[in-house]
Amino acid sequence: MNNKTKATWMLAAALSLMLAACGNERAAEPPAPTESPKPTDSKKPVETKKPTESSGDSSVVPAPPVTSANSESAKDAKTEKEKEAKAKETKETKETKETKTTKDKPNMSEPADKQSQPSGATGAVSDNGKAGVSGPKNPAAAVTDGKTKEPPATGTGDRKALSWYYMKKPKGQVPNFPAETKSFTKDMKALWVGTGKKVYLTIDTGGPLGDIDTLVKSLKDNKVKANFFIAGYNVKKNPDFIRTLVADGHLIANHTMTHTDMNTQTDEQVRKEIEDYAKLYKDVTGKDIQPYFRFPYGRYNTHLLKMVSDMGYTSVFWSTAMRDWEPRKNGAEDPYNDIMNNLHDGNIILMHQGSPENIQALDKIIKAVKKAGYEFALLSDIEPPK
Ligand SMILES: [Zn+2]
Q: How far apart are the CA of 295 and the centre of ligand 1, in A?
């Protein structure tokens, strides 16, 4: 399309995204499994973990889909957008409704990384953080790959599709988390924040690999160990990168082979995504995978939480995320500010590797976090919920 058309299209897309989106984070979600208004359950067994929220204020942070701001993705983005646009039309209605109901959710979820995400689309929404997000953000993206579409189980009960997010609080305070966390049981083994003066940097590579050298160097120069959730297709693409990370002492965890929305997969497919990943990891590194898992885009349901837990994994969400799947308005200042302004005890930070600004800012972020009195730690240092 020509520029004008494109511009018009983008504008329209941006508007609809803003409307739809606000709530969810992941940008591109896959065919949206219909998310229903969340259940705010009140009673339910309280979950094991942490600090749940209280009421609080929430400045909601929009969640970031991971995708990337990179060129690579930018390319795909175009086509994806087109697809999305179509998809959107259909979806939108649905979403809009959902959005309304879910309005209270603010914040961040995992950005969608990878290809499935329409990066571009997400990009369109550029309000970084502000919040109010409510609906699925770019749903469109999701549609991109038609194959994921026949989701099996969506729906209701413990299969109700959920998206991770959190509600930001004033600087230094632990955010509030979704009401559904109250229904998590101990045997679901989920983590989203730790405690104490520790920060868990989790780097998501569901999308582009980006500037690997600077990334590895920034961590090494500062003697920091990070936690990586690298999609299997990226492990295949650059096995040496994985070996380097292992040699440097970083923790690499399971993020599925294809980085698709697990809500759209059958149990059997989910199991295979995870088992294939573990096998690949072993082939590449000679070691067993660490028992941590992250749902792509933060899209999950409690049935899957339990299933993944039964497979031996702890599911890791986050307490800080950024809209880093799109170009940052102020360059490397944005990730720096996003992180420093939400720094809190036990902070599990989600950062997408494919964002050039993240990598540019990494050295500065690490130094500032340390200066603020925090120590970088591995997920394996977090005490499991009792
Ligand atoms: Zn991811």
A: 7
pTM equals 0.68
- Between the CA of 318 and the centroid of ligand 1 the distance, in Å, is 12
Domain ends where: 133, 168, 203? 168
Whole-angstrom Cα distance, residue 216 to residue 213? 5
Domain boundary among 121, 136, 168: 168
Residue 155 predicted with pLDDT over 60 = yes
Q: How confident is the model at residue 157 (pLDDT cuts 50, 70, 90)?
A: confident
Q: Examine the pLDDT at 142 and tell me if it is beyond 70.
A: no
Angle at 54 between CA 57 and CA 336, to 5 degrees: 50
Q: Is 77 in the same domain as 25?
A: yes
The residues, any chain, with a CB within 8 Å of residue 201's CB and separated by 6 or more, are 224, 226, 227, 349, 351, 366, 376
Give the residue carrying structure tokens 């998310």.
Answer: 35
Ligand 1 centroid vs 3 CA: distance in angstroms? 31
Quote the ligand 1 centre to 108 CA distance (angstroms): 13
- Do 96 and 29 have their domain in common? yes
Whole-number Å distance, alpha carbon 205 to ligand 1 midpoint, is 6
